[in-house]
Specification:
alpha+beta, globular
Length: 234
């Protein structure tokens, strides 16, 4: 009886410690250590990629979308979590700073469906869009609700996607790495054409499938951009 009781206690403790050791976040697949890099994200003009507009800031705009900064010490620090095939969409983990641990509540650099979008689809025939924001994990697939920085800032529930980033097929050594967005529509298909757009009037960044329609609805000062990941050791 004593042996059985001791065994039961050990099994119970093992369950507790296993639960406590569980990670605070999930990813869409096992990350590949070869590509797990820490760094910052800069915003450059597209398609020339010759003019750096700024860096993704640690702070957000009034709507909870990630804002921009010109000060490197204020830049958001992140970690890429791709699988071993860099073409597969993956999550980007948000770090509080270069020296602190992961933000436990909204740990991923993803996107949330824009409040004025008519659906969760990003298409070439509409101004539908998604704000670049902090999100909790959701499996790769069509957007659905999970807590996010937009909801935190506005109180409005919106759907999100977290595994939306891909890398180029070839990676050059000692150069910035382009981050290419990938969005899944409600029918399960991947949006055919997704542009990153900077909106200076809101200091916000969005994904959209039709830049002209988006600009007509939200302001002509929008600028098409791309994200470049800058590794810490570059």
């Amino acid at each position: 009886m004593l042996v059985n009781s001791s065994l039961f206690l050990l099994l119970a403790l093992g369950t507790v410690f296993s639960t406590l050791a569980a990670p605070l976040f999930q990813t869409s697949g096992p990350p590949c250590n070869a590509f797990q890099l820490k760094g910052t994200i800069q915003i450059v003009d597209y398609p020339d990629r010759s003019n750096v507009l700024g860096l993704i800031s640690q702070g957000t705009n009034p709507y909870g979308g990630y804002a921009t900064t010109q000060i490197s010490s204020d830049a958001l620090h992140v970690k890429l979590l791709p699988g071993c095939d860099p073409a597969d969409p993956f999550e980007i983990l948000i770090l509080a700073s270069r020296w602190e641990d992961v933000f436990a509540d909204l740990p991923l650099f993803g996107a949330v469906v824009g409040l004025d979008s008519t659906s969760d689809d990003i298409t070439t025939d509409s101004a539908n869009h998604a704000y670049v924001a902090g999100t909790f994990f959701v499996p790769r697939g069509p957007a659905h609700f999970a807590f996010n920085t937009y909801t935190e800032a506005t109180g409005r529930e919106v759907d999100v996607q977290s595994a939306i980033w891909t890398l180029p097929n070839s990676l050059a050594v000692n150069t910035p790495i382009a981050l290419v967005p990938s969005w899944v529509n409600t029918n399960g298909s991947v949006a055919s054409d997704v542009s990153l757009v900077y909106v200076p009037s809101a200091d916000g960044l969005v994904l959209t499938g039709n830049v002209d329609d988006f600009a007509a609805q939200f302001g002509s000062d929008v600028q098409v951009v791309t994200f470049e990941f800058i590794p810490d050791d570059l």
